[in-house]
Design brief:
Layout: H1 2-21, E1 32-37, E2 40-42, E3 46-56, H2 68-79, E4 82-83, E5 88-93, E6 96-101, E7 107-113, E8 123-132, E9 135-145, E10 154-158, H3 171-180, H4 192-201, E11 211-215, H5 222-231, E12 239-241, H6 257-271, E13 277-282, H7 287-297, E14 302-308, H8 314-329, E15 334-337, H9 340-349, H10 357-372
Parallel strand pairs: 2-9, 10-11, 10-13, 11-12, 13-14, 14-15
Antiparallel strand pairs: 1-3, 2-3, 3-4, 3-7, 5-6, 5-8, 8-9
Length: 373
């Protein structure tokens, strides 16, 4: 039994190591300049995505070797990467092309108008190449998401304290819970997977509504979040990290979290002008205030606001209740919910998801509570 447990832990930690080392593996071990593209989002008229340009050391080993040693070397290479400032990146999608430059942290943003509309599928490939410094080997492929014509609304969800428990946006903590303790560990809030799958499907289960995620975690945890979503069967979608969203060239500190979350949501709403949205967050930060501000700026476009209650302060509950009254007067709902089941029941009443989802969310929560007893 002890040996079996040891081997299970060892396999889990090897998997965690491969995920942490994954961002550098795209250069086939050669080292040098490297473009890392993060998943973007777009419409039939435009595309937005972010990325970063690095210089990283080579591995000096046979890339056909898939071993613990190779993973450790790649992890070390990741730790030794250096961002490239003022690099110029060419971005191409079909017959549309643009040039962007990296900031002082090596990040770049792509906001490109499209001349040829994407086909009616969800994920599209985009080509990225390095123009300056010149390195033809640094070319890579990114991807961006577009809703299909069947989508009827979109969802913008916070991740921290909304999808995952507090503290999980810490890389070491998430890796331990997710891989050493297993996918059934208390990482995700009970019922989130079933609820978000229902939002994605809509009332008839086939709408394919887009889900976009925002997080206050650092970009270093991006690959971990992607794997976390896959293991927990949470609908795939672009993940926008807010820490670098607010950085400005020449500034020493990022703008306040409230400011760049508002900016990010405004941008998402501008990309999807034809869609109304559901906003999901938590009570621990300023999500209710931020979402109420968005509602007042975009009357008629916010179908509902769901706030997971993670605060023990009665004064916070009172403040959110006052916001809920203001939101109601503006023609929408702000729901302060203690669990995913309460959110699901309200969403069924609003005809946003099918009634059958309530039992699935209830079963998920009961299973999780039984595990903790």
């Amino acid at each position: 039994m002890i040996r079996r447990s040891y081997h299970k832990r060892a396999r889990s930690l090897r998997k965690a190591l491969r995920i942490l080392a994954a961002p550098v593996k795209g250069d086939s071990g050669r080292g040098g300049l490297f473009i890392q593209a993060y998943r973007g989002f777009g419409s039939r008229q435009q595309v937005f995505l972010m990325g970063r340009v690095f210089k990283q050391p080579g591995s000096g080993t046979d890339r056909r070797e898939h071993s613990l040693k190779q993973d450790l070397i790649d992890l070390l290479r990741r730790l030794l990467r250096k961002p490239i400032v003022n690099a110029q990146v060419r971005v191409r999608y079909k017959d549309a092309e643009t040039l962007v430059r990296t900031d002082r942290h090596g990040f770049f943003r792509v906001h490109m108008e499209l001349t040829t509309m994407p086909s009616d599928v969800t994920w599209h490939s985009v080509d990225l190449s390095l123009v300056h410094p010149v390195d033809e080997r640094a070319a890579t492929t990114g991807e961006f998401y577009t809703p299909t014509s069947s989508a009827r609304y979109g969802v913008i969800s916070d991740i921290d304290d909304t999808v995952v428990y507090t503290g999980v946006a810490n890389t070491a903590m998430m890796m331990w819970r997710l891989f050493a303790q297993g996918a059934e560990s208390r990482v995700v809030f009970p019922g989130v997977s079933a609820l978000y799958q229902a939002f994605h499907g809509g009332p008839d289960g086939a709408q394919g509504n887009p889900l976009l995620y925002v997080s206050r975690a650092p970009w270093s945890i991006y690959q971990v979040l992607v794997e976390f979503f896959r293991l927990h069967r949470i609908p795939n979608g672009p993940i926008l990290i807010l820490r670098e969203w607010g950085l400005k060239r020449g500034s020493l500190l990022p703008r306040r979290a409230k400011d760049h979350k508002v900016d990010a949501i405004r941008h998402m709403l501008s990309v999807y002008k034809e869609l109304p949205f559901i906003l999901i967050g938590d009570s621990g930060q300023r999500d209710p205030e931020v979402y109420a501000e968005i509602l007042h700026e975009h009357p008629g476009r916010i179908l509902g606001i769901y706030i997971r209650n993670v605060s023990d302060d009665p004064r916070r509950d009172d403040a959110i209740a006052e916001l809920a009254r203001e939101v109601k007067a503006s023609g929408s709902d702000l729901m302060l919910a203690g669990d995913s089941l309460t959110m699901a029941e309200h969403a069924v009443e609003q005809e946003l998801i099918p009634a059958s989802i309530v039992d699935k969310v209830r079963q998920s929560q009961e299973k999780d509570q039984a595990k903790d007893d």
